[in-house]
Every structure is written in structure tokens, then in C-alpha cells.
Amino acid sequence: MGNAPSMLTQYDIEEVQGHCNKLFTQQEIVSLYERFCQLDRNAKGFISADEFMSVPEFAMNPLAQRLLKMVDGLNFKDFVAFLSAFSAKASLEHKVALIFRVYDSDGNGKVTFNDILEVLRDMTGSFMSDKQREEVLAQLLQEAGYTKESYLLLDDFVKIFANSGLKMDVEVPVD
């Protein structure tokens, strides 16, 4: 699977299933492989940032640049592992871990006021001023029992999202 072979073997499929904790069926993995090969235009065995940006839904996402840092250069196994957070079978913790990585752009395991502010800036663009964003975020954090000086860990994100009814499910089309 290193250099994007033309076909997956049963062994490859089972290996990928193990890599994503069996969150996708074998049929879904084959469909994901077909999509991966479409994106990997030069058959390098990995998908570049430019290739990801060719997906309109990805390119239109206000967090695309943050997501690109997470997906640039993924091989097929890691591509499926990344997408597994969007499986209906993925646990809340698995989904929240992906969200946490979006906010924790420097990868230090902590999300600060400024980290959240950057994501809010990406999402709101010119619809809110920096002052408005800071006020809204400070109020939100205060209501949740945090301050501007607090930092959030993954466990904090899990607690925050625990009762949110978070839905991040994407259906994998199977031919």
C-alpha cells in the first residue's frame, strides 16, 4: 500500500480495518480506497495539500488551512484513520480528539484562549471584529468555569462535548 497499488488485497483491507479500529466495513474501505486513488492524481501513495484542496467541500471549509496541517501527506491507512472520526460508529472521545487537534494547532496538548480565538477568527471572518470575538469567547469561557488564562486539555474537551449531542457522521457511499 506504500505506492498506491491498483488493487487492495484482502490482507490490505484487514490491515486498514485494524488501523481504524474496525470503524469501517470492508466494502467501505474499498470505496474509500477508490476515492483515495482519485485524489492521489500522481499515484504517489499519499495525498498532498493541493490534492485535498481539489475537493470542493474541503476547500470551502473555513478551517481548511488547519485541517490541511493534519492531512497533508497522508497515506491510505492514515487517510482512513483520519476519516474514522466521522464514522457513525466512532466514539465521542474519538470525534472530540479530532476537534481538539483542530484547536491545538501547535500540538502541545493544550488549547489556550488564543488558540480558540484563532479558530473563531477563521470561522467568522469579517462578520465579527476582534473585539467582539474576544468578548464573546471570554463570556463563554467564564460561563463554562474557565478564564482567559486557562488552557483546556483533551479531557476538558470531552467533558464539554459530553452532553452536546455531537454529530460528525459522514456516510461512505458503497457501490
From TrEMBL:
GO terms for molecular function: calcium ion binding. Keywords: Calcium. InterPro entries: EF-hand-dom_pair, EF_Hand_1_Ca_BS, EF_hand_dom. Residues 27-62, 91-126 form the EF-hand domain. The keyword Metal-binding does not apply. Pfam families: EF-hand_7. This is EF-hand domain-containing protein. It comes from Opuntia streptacantha.
